[in-house]
Amino acid sequence: MTEPGAGSDLQAVRTWAVRDRDHYVVNGAKTFITNGYTGNLLAVVVKTDPRLGAKGISLIAMETEGLAGFRVGRVLEKIGNAASDTCELFFDDVRVPAENLIGGVEGQGLAQLMSQLPFERMLIAVTATAVIERALELTVAYTKDRKAFGQSVFDFQNTRFRLDECATLAHVVRTFVNDCIQRLLRGCLEAEAAYMAKWWCTEQQCRVLDECLQLFGGYGCMSEFPIARMHADARVQKIYGGANEVMKELIGRSL
After folding, report:
1. Catalytic (active-site) positions
2. pLDDT of 48 strictly over 80
């Protein structure tokens, strides 16, 4: 989905596909594509009719191995998530069989995307939940072991109060996400609830990790410590899958 000039605003994509008999010819570029370096089967968001705006967006499946005109750009360096490759992709007169149009009808792309975005946003919320719980577990163990001024760091009231707050957030986040998952499995999760889960849980993830890193002191800034890597990984959670500001805008439209 994401392009150099289009992120959360899916209607702004500029990669286009022109029908040429039994093929589509695709031109454009994508960026920040997870698994872009290793992946060889793409679902590409394209404009099949730029005049129609959102109704001119389609999805095309593309098998890229040996595909003429397709090129993978550089692997992008990120501040976190080092184990996940993130790349630029380029399409220069790439010919794709017309039968690869997902759904078989042009202009269905935005609806197809929107039908799956609540699921994606719940995946992000689940990640936030798991990271919060793990960060709390690591920090409690570290503060009980670390000594300062003749006692464990955990024995200071300030430490316990901070961890109390983190534990409460972890419990509330888990309860909220579990409820959303149950409704998602039953097929009755409102899109707005998924938006809420995405933005709020990722905000709490970053908040808790900042508190936990602080309690690690200087060690919290060392990349060999899991808490440092978790802190760096967390920041993008508030951006991908739809920026949190966009989530709030979407929720606001339903009020």
Report:
1. 120
2. yes
Write out the two tokens for 81. Answer: 């998530």
pTM value?
A: 0.89
The residue count for the chain: 255
CATH 2.40.110.10 range(s) for the chain read: 10-106
Closest CA to 233 of 253, 209, 215: 209
Sign of CA dihedral 47, 53, 58, 64: positive
Q: Which amino acid is at 208?
A: V
Q: Which CATH architecture has domain 10-106?
A: Beta Barrel (2.40)
pLDDT of residue 114: 84
How far is the C-alpha of 255 from the C-alpha of 248, rounded, in Å? 11
Q: How far apart are CA 180 and CA 187, in angstroms?
A: 10
Tokens 């679902």 -> residue: 43
The superfamily CATH assigns to domain 110-253 is: Butyryl-CoA Dehydrogenase, subunit A, domain 3 (1.20.140.10)
Q: Coil, strand or helix: which one is 146?
A: coil
